[in-house]
Amino acid sequence: MERVVCIVQTTLPEDWLEPIAAEWATSFVRDELASCVQRSLVTSVYHWDGSIESSDEWRIQLKTSIKTKDKLVSEIQKRHPFDTPQILVWLAESTAEYASWVEG
Description:
The protein is of the alpha+beta class. It has helices at residues 18-30, 69-79, 96-103; strands at residues 3-12, 36-48, 51-64, 87-94. The protein is globular.
């Protein structure tokens, strides 16, 4: 592996219908903040208000360049429906060809 891409992950409410989650996620590709986005339903288990909760959520994973990462995170924060959204960011090793594609 020769290059890296930035992966940004968040979740969306379980009650969002698929077309709504799809539009929200796709908007970041359309706005050229991410090169690729993947969405899937997941079940999350977490502490909330003193008890253990479990709920389905949309996991949204976006691939972007290091230079675009901060702008993408900022836009996720602006557009996100949760008061305290999960926003995780990490670097992933990649092939030079894929990283070049992500960088645009």
